[in-house]
């Protein structure tokens, strides 16, 4: 086969325009396939950066999405018989180290974390067993990227003191590059022992679920034996905490499988991306195959002569496949280079903000597979056609085989058009969904809303309420401000989840029916949002107490937990246990969506400031008119807190719709590429058809047919072909729309608008791609065609 390579390259060099177009199409297809695989790998399949990750098992409880209380996690670590650890994350932790300061993500560990992960220190040392003990010195290990970017890679940082939420930790080590996450989508900048956590009540609280436990099975250990030991640990935990013992259980799940199960939304997005990119790769294959087929039939005399002097059909097939593979290899190499740039662009997409999209071995394997697939898929049809047939007939028939060329070409064009129609329909569906999502009713006065996050973590717990309330009053007194309040929730940003206990509902008996969302709120927060109290009253400043005494709830919670009666005056226990004091409901507020297109769910608010709160400000007019005043207060050097940038409701909408925006960007890119490829295929097919029909058209012109009538004849033939592709494309588009319906908001698969837009777009491109080569060819002198041999 290697003997054919120089000949194949020489054959391509004789037709530079053809070679350039075919190679460019292959490069685009390979680059898109490689980029898509890189995105999917980062979203779903890439595990945490641990050695021998297949030996890692996540230990999950059967409530609260599998997370565990810290003391339960310690019992598992001590009694499981395997090397194990647990982790939890803290967000927006204040740090300072000499002149450097800001907010970071902190990972708090228990057990033998780095031994389980089999990580080694890049500088200094990692956490040791003594670092996890009560009374030990607080120490921290820093991530390599944080050390390099934020601390400029200072060599003397080991041994320095870093303050986290005002608490000093001695830096003892730096992790190696790439070893910086114990959860796929969270990238901490620092690691500490949970024993030194900032909230004293967390460490021994068996009612606060925050830790994820992971164990490494030693060589020879089996998952069944490990699960048996976990069952024994479950019995021990149930003895330690008898309430709800019948409901407690532990399950060992391979870490790779557990991480994938927690990424169901990303998995769905990945299937959609892979499906659409596969369609585009097929379009590229059909396009190149069409070009190779047409080009091969132009050379049928050449191959007939080769056959007549002794070349076998297999040798002809080898040459044609060799040319196809040469095009694919060159295009694949260029596609890999192009994908390096596209992967960098893809890493900026909103829905991959928490993972790293990079070119790795999997991406390279995808590029090789796409290259080989394109070469074989696009070369088999022309090779099969030209390797058969009688030599004498090939030498004598001249252009008589145009009908056979056209039949094969028609099939390829119909396939291109139908797949392009599918991609375009999906792109228009997502466009319409995104447009309607931006226009949905949020249920609050968002157009006049500004907000910013404040970290109170360095402030003692006993003073946080007062500091937060003082800041609220300062904001409310700004000229042009109508109202101000704070909450742990941000606009369209979700809330915490818990299980309520009432006289009628108990989580130990019906957990699913007791789920509710919660947030911490201030006096005036609901008024700031423009959400009315429909019965009762708002919380008051005097009610910022611990334990909680009062709460406000939404209409959905009232209907769910107190059907047929008013919730005002009723009591519930917010954290699912019977031992806690009840909270009295003082008001019911109107439902409003916490996420676009999500139905309202039971939600309650408790009056208190937490370590991180968002201050909301409603202005009299455009909130940007008070941005300078807000920045002056937020950035005041005398502040005890750390404030982030001021944002607006439009920012919240964009953040909440980042998945839809990312899908739109991906689909729009694929749709544009599909249009370009399809238009190229239609243009090339029309040009070849007109060339093959030159004698027929010249005879028609010689007996009086006008160029315009022949142009219309050519257009009609092409449009019939395109129409067949559009009919098939509509069927495929509808099937694809049904498949992606769950990822569309406010749009039904049966809506006509996306399909009409698709038809208009493809027809316009098809007419243009048909008209230009036909018009050019029909301007030629018919005598030239009639004189050709």
TrEMBL record:
One MF annotation (Gene Ontology) recorded for this entry: transmembrane transporter activity
Residue stretches spanning the membrane: 271-293, 325-343, 363-384, 411-432, 663-685, 721-740, 752-772
Keyword annotations from UniProtKB, A to Z: Cell membrane, Membrane, Transmembrane, Transmembrane helix
Topological relation to the membrane, as annotated: Multi-pass membrane protein
Keyword Hydrolase: no
Principal subcellular localization: membrane
Classification via Pfam families: FtsX (PF02687), MacB_PCD (PF12704)
Domain ABC3 transporter permease C-terminal: from-to ranges: 278-388, 670-778
Subcellular location field: Cell membrane
GO CC, alphabetical: plasma membrane
Domain MacB-like periplasmic core: 20-232, 454-595
Keyword Membrane: yes
Family, as annotated: Belongs to the ABC-4 integral membrane protein family.
Name this protein carries in UniProt: ABC transporter permease
């Amino acid at each position: 086969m290697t003997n054919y390579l120089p000949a194949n390259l020489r054959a391509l060099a004789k037709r530079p325009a053809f070679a350039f177009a075919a190679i460019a199409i292959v490069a685009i297809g390979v680059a898109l396939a490689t980029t898509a695989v890189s995105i999917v790998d980062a979203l779903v399949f890439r595990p945490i950066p641990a050695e021998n990750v297949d030996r890692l098992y996540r230990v999950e409880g059967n409530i609260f999405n599998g997370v565990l209380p810290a003391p339960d996690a310690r019992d598992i670590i001590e009694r499981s018989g395997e090397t194990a650890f647990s982790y939890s994350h803290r967000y927006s932790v204040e740090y300072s180290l000499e002149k450097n300061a800001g907010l970071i993500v902190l990972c708090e560990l228990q057990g033998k974390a780095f031994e389980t992960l089999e990580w080694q220190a890049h500088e200094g040392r990692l956490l040791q067993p003594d670092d996890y003990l009560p009374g030990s010195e607080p120490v921290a290990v820093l991530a390599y990227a944080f050390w390099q970017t934020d601390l400029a890679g200072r060599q003397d940082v080991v041994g320095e003191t870093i303050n986290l939420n005002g608490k000093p930790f001695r830096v003892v080590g730096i992790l190696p590059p790439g070893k910086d996450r114990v959860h796929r989508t969270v990238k901490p900048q620092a690691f500490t022992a949970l024993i030194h956590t900032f909230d004293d009540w967390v460490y021994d609280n068996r009612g606060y679920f925050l830790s994820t436990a992971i164990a490494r099975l030693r060589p020879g250990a089996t998952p069944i034996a490990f699960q048996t030991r976990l069952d024994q640990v479950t019995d021990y935990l149930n003895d330690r905490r008898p309430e709800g013992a019948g409901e407690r259980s532990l399950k060992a799940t391979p870490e790779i499988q557990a991480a994938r199960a927690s990424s169901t939304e990303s998995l769905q997005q990945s299937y959609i991306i892979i499906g659409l990119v596969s369609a585009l790769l097929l379009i590229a294959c059909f396009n190149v195959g069409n070009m190779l087929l047409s080009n091969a039939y132009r050379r049928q005399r050449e191959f007939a002569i080769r056959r007549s002097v002794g070349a076998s059909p297999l040798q002809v097939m080898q040459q044609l496949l060799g040319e196809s593979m040469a095009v694919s290899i060159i295009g694949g190499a260029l596609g890999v280079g192009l994908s390096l740039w596209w992967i960098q662009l893809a890493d900026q997409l909103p829905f991959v903000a928490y993972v790293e999209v990079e070119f790795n071995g999997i991406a390279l394997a995808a590029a090789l597979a796409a290259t080989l697939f394109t070469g074989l898929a696009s070369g088999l049809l022309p090779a099969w056609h030209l390797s058969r047939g009688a030599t004498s007939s090939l030498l004598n028939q001249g252009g008589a085989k145009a009908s056979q060329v056209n039949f094969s070409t028609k099939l390829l064009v119909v396939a291109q058009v139908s797949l392009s129609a599918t991609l375009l329909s999906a792109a228009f569906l997502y466009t319409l969904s995104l447009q309607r999502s931006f226009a949905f009713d949020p249920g609050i006065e968002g157009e006049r809303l500004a907000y910013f996050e404040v970290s109170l973590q360095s402030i003692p717990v006993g003073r946080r309420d007062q500091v937060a309330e003082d800041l609220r009053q300062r904001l409310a007194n700004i000229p042009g401000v109508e109202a101000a309040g704070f909450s742990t929730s941000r606009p369209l940003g979700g809330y915490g989840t818990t299980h309520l206990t009432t006289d009628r509902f108990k989580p130990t008996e019906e957990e699913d029916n007791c789920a509710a969302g919660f947030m911490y709120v201030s006096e005036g927060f609901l008024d700031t949002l423009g959400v009315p109290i429909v019965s009762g009253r708002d919380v008051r400043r005097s009610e910022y107490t611990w334990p909680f005494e009062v709460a406000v709830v939404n209409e959905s919670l009232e209907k769910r937990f107190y059907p047929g009666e008013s919730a005002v005056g009723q009591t519930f226990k917010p954290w699912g246990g019977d031992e806690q004091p009840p909270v009295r409901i003082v008001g019911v507020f109107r439902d409003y969506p916490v996420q676009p297109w999500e139905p309202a769910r039971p939600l309650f608010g408790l009056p208190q400031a937490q370590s991180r709160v968002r201050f909301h400000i409603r202005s009299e007019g455009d909130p940007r008119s008070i941005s300078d005043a807000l920045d002056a207060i937020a950035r005041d050097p005398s502040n005890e807190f750390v404030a982030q940038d001021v944002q607006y409701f439009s920012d919240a909408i964009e953040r909440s719709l980042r998945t839809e925006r990312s899908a739109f960007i991906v689909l729009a890119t694929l749709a544009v590429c599909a249009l370009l490829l399809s238009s190229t295929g239609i243009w090339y097919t029309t040009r070849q058809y007109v060339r093959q029909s030159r004698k027929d058209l010249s005879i028609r012109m010689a007996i009086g047919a006008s160029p315009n009538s022949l142009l219309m004849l050519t257009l009609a033939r092409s449009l019939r072909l395109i129409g067949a592709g559009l009919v098939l494309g509509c069927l495929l588009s509808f099937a694809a729309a049904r498949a992606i319906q769950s990822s569309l908001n406010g749009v039904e698969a049966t809506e006509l608008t996306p399909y009409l837009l698709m038809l208009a777009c493809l027809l316009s491109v098809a007419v243009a791609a048909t008209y230009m080569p036909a018009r050019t060819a029909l301007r030629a002198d018919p005598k030239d065609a009639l004189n050709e041999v």
